[in-house]
Design a protein that fits this description.
With 362 residues, this protein is an alpha+beta fold. It is 46% helix and 16% strand. The protein is built from ten helices and nine strands.
């Protein structure tokens, strides 16, 4: 007699969350003055706007991949900054003239590698003016976490996955603050990047220069709380023509430790829970904490409740379908036996109704 297999112990909520949790660095890149391109393209058949958009999509994606391969500083090839090729920024959606990218994080220091690659690609695209002389792109980057704050959805019949949630909405709105010479960052991404640079290990010359431009209202974010406007300079402190025209005479980046302390103060002041990365040993991002476990339980319980309702509806539908089929069969059997015109008409109408209900419930 074969020995009984020992049943595996059920996962705790924390273990279940740990196995499902993913943290992504997200980014959007879109064309500046794209509306004028489309307008000119409609008026000038010889200059089709769609060709320029398609060229932007393919060219920028190639430049981003090239930035990972050829433009990263040497420390990005060492742990904990190194990132697998499969974990690089990958485009997952196009919305009009806007490209959306995602990169799954396994260490918070990888945000530095992704930010340098993104900044480099934006700078090179704008320097080359690869579509036409006056066209540039701009970018914003932020953090999204699944399966609690945000959700990664796979829709039957569609390839790939998309994301929904407040972090995605916030990121789309952050893009409004971006400029061709500024890589706009969400405050939590900026905080994560600063902690990565301050260390350990400490990075003295990352090529990333952080700026803070005060707080302002960000659409649909933090219930109207004024949001820190943080960005990284795209051109490594070199002045662009537009900045000179705006009266900017010099660039003095923030002290990284001061900015990190300020953003952490903002986080605690507004009771914003820190993200966690399941394979990151850092005290800042290890987890999940009790807060995230409780949130996960709420979502899981609600999902189970809705699934139970869906199952009960399916059971009710199945019972109703059986009843309507029986009724249809009975009416069809009675129709040839009825000679009275009025009764025949009533049965005909009932057969039509029963046929319609069977079709709807099938």
């Amino acid at each position: 007699m074969a020995p009984k297999r020992k049943s595996r112990p059920r996962k705790t909520l924390a273990e279940e969350l740990q196995s499902k949790a993913k943290l992504y660095m997200m980014a959007s890149v879109d064309l500046v003055r794209s509306k004028s391109i489309k307008k000119n393209g409609r008026e000038n058949i010889a200059d089709p706007w769609i060709v320029k958009f398609e060229h932007f999509y393919s060219t920028f994606i190639a430049m981003l991949e090239n930035a990972y391969d050829q433009s990263l500083p040497s420390f990005c090839s060492r742990s904990p900054f190194t990132t697998a090729k499969t974990k690089r920024f990958k485009a997952y959606k196009v919305l009009g003239d806007e490209l959306f990218f995602r990169a799954e994080l396994t260490k918070h220091q990888q945000t530095i590698t992704h930010a340098i690659a993104l900044k480099t690609a934006v700078r090179e695209f704008n320097r080359r003016r690869s579509i036409e002389p006056n066209l540039e792109c701009k970018s914003a980057a932020w953090i999204a976490g699944v399966p609690i704050t945000d959700s990664e959805i796979k829709i039957p019949g569609l390839d790939g996955a998309d994301f929904i949630g407040p972090s995605i909405d916030k990121g789309i709105n952050l893009a409004d603050w971006a400029e061709p010479y500024r890589l706009t960052l969400s405050f939590d991404l900026a905080l994560m990047m600063l902690r990565a640079l301050i260390g350990p290990p400490t990075i003295q010359h990352s090529g990333l220069h952080f700026f803070y431009r005060g707080k302002k209202k960000l659409r649909n974010a933090l219930n109207g709380i004024l949001y820190p406007h943080v960005y990284v300079d795209i051109y490594d402190l070199k002045m662009t023509r537009e900045e000179k025209l705006l009266g900017i005479t010099s660039k003095t980046p923030c002290d990284e430790k001061e900015l990190e302390a300020f953003l952490e103060e903002f986080r605690t002041q507004h009771d914003l829970w820190p993200w966690f990365i399941k394979s990151d040993p850092s005290d800042h991002y290890k987890g999940p904490t009790e807060y995230w476990v409780e949130r996960f339980k709420e979502i899981r319980d609600k999902r189970q409740e809705l699934n139970a309702i869906k199952d009960s509806v399916l059971v009710d539908n199945e019972s109703a379908l059986v009843a309507w089929r029986e009724k249809l069969e009975y009416l069809q059997s009675q129709e040839p036996l009825t000679s009275d015109p009025e009764q025949k008409f009533v049965i005909k109408k009932k057969i039509e109704e029963a046929s319609r209900m069977v079709a709807e419930l099938s």
